[in-house]
Write a structure and sequence with these properties.
- By secondary structure, the chain is α+β, with helices and mostly antiparallel strands.
- The chain has 13 helices and 16 strands.
- Strands 1, 2, 3, 4, 5, 6, 7, 8, 9, 10 and 11 form an 11-stranded mixed β-sheet that branches. A 3-stranded antiparallel β-sheet has the order 13-12-14, with no helix packed on it.
- Helix 5 runs parallel beside helix 6 and helix 8 packs across helix 10.
- The longest helix is centred in the N-terminal third of the chain and has 13 residues.
- It is globular and about 55 Å long.
């Protein structure tokens, strides 16, 4: 492990007190993995640490500068830190030894508290560089983020889908601050940054030189959304950065708050309560828009919740979740059968009634807070022939979608006959 991951010089030590009597935080010492300076993780960690330590009971929170999501997951698993923020996709891969962690051991010993906000995959170049689209990166020097960062994973996936192989671009690995400095100096041509928008380091850069954000076209976004479960549509509104005159369409992934399994249930329940009771204070401090409540905070997370977080959600009336499979012909038989079914949170068992069901699983879950919740909501489906995505009612399950859009249609039936359907049984 690189020494800089736990650089003492970058540690912020916050010594104060817990926020209310009897909360279970007395004497607790928490090391909080926060990724690099200039990113939203660090702002969130500093702010949340201050909220945790703002009352009467004595508690210590140390905010640690790390290399990013992958490093945080390893540090959590190995017991060097007790709390961290990490991307949802990397969290899943590390926990189940899938994807980028496929040839590694499973990293366990941590659980979920809540999904926090969506991080946008931002590709930044200078406005005077002549680079106006992803194709313009060919032959250029591009920072894909630090090694072991979520940005690196997203950059590699986006470049691959865009047809930009290692032979076509010169990739370098820089943290956000160094990447921004080198872009300003003309030493690199562009850099990737997966973070909540507005991102501080990009905002500061836009004051030094005129920048351009590269948009992902619809075809690229569709390929990413259909290939990787954890991506969602993301729009960086015009005016987010200096001289940004148009909305930028890209993809995003959720940031998730994680804690060590060794933290007591009472402590994590108190942390979870602090998170939601102070979401307005967090919103004031963060440049990114937090659309966070107890319902959305539990959606799409595929690893177990800590018992303390689960206890808090149960008190809030959230004790069920619904299984959601991908509506296309690649979905496995077992996920087709589970789609739309509702389970108790306390009975959650990844591999039995919760994703991932197999190494290629693209399914997810949503919290259930009443039958009316799905009214007016939509879910994404993929046309079997054209590959284009479209929206259907959220209440429609896989079998209903198949009956309406696939069965009896000659073209779609022929397409299914030639598709790779994963056949698995429990």
């Amino acid at each position: 492990m690189k020494k800089k991951i736990l650089g003492i010089g970058a540690t912020v030590l916050i010594l104060s007190a817990a926020f209310f009597a009897g909360c279970g935080l007395t004497g607790t010492r928490i090391r909080f993995g926060a990724a690099g300076l200039g990113g939203t993780y660090h702002v969130f960690a500093d702010t949340f640490a201050g909220l945790i330590t703002a009352g009467k009971e004595k508690c210590t929170v140390e905010v640690k500068t790390t290399a990013g999501s992958a490093a945080n997951l390893r540090l959590l698993s190995d017991g060097y830190i007790q709390m961290a923020v990490a991307q949802n996709d990397l969290t899943n891969d590390a926990y189940y030894a899938a994807g980028t962690f496929e040839n590694s051991r499973k990293y366990r010993g941590y659980s979920a508290v809540a999904a926090l906000y969506t991080e946008s995959c931002q590709i930044v170049g200078r406005a005077d560089s002549g680079i106006e689209s992803m194709d313009g990166l060919q032959g250029k020097t591009v920072s894909v983020g630090e090694n072991e960062s979520g940005t690196e994973l997203n950059a590699e996936q986006i470049l691959a889908v865009s047809g930009l192989t290692d032979k076509l671009i010169d990739k370098v690995h820089l943290d956000y601050t160094e990447a921004a400095e080198r872009l300003a100096d003309g030493k690199i041509d562009a850099f990737f940054c997966t973070a909540g928008a507005e991102t501080t380091v990009i905002s500061e850069l836009s004051k030094q030189c005129e920048i351009r954000l590269l948009e992902l076209d619809e075809s690229t976004r569709d390929k990413l959304l259909n290939s990787y479960t954890f991506y969602t549509e993301s729009v960086i509104p015009k005016g987010t950065y200096n001289n940004q005159t148009e909305d930028i369409h890209t993809v995003g992934v959720k940031a998730v708050l994680l804690v060590s399994d060794k933290l007591p249930e009472k402590t994590v329940k108190a942390l979870t309560k602090t998170l939601f009771e102070n979401k307005q204070e967090l919103q004031y401090a963060l440049p990114v828009n937090i659309v966070m409540n107890e319902q959305t905070a539990t959606e799409g997370i595929t690893i177990p919740f800590h018992k303390g977080a689960a206890a808090y959600y149960k008190e809030c009336g959230i004790d069920k979740y619904q299984y959601l499979a991908t509506l296309d012909l690649r979905t496995s038989e077992i996920c087709r059968e589970l789609d739309g079914k509702v389970f108790l949170v306390k009975d959650q068992q990844p591999g039995k009634n919760c994703p991932p069901m197999h190494p290629w699983c693209r399914s997810t879950t949503i919290a259930i807070i009443g039958e009316k919740m799905l009214e007016g909501m939509k879910r994404r489906a993929r046309d079997p022939v054209t590959g284009k995505t479209y929206l259907v009612p959220a209440s429609m399950n896989y079998r209903e979608w198949y009956a309406k859009y696939v069965k009896g249609d000659g073209k779609t039936v022929a397409k299914e006959a030639g598709s790779d359907i994963i056949e698995m049984t429990q």
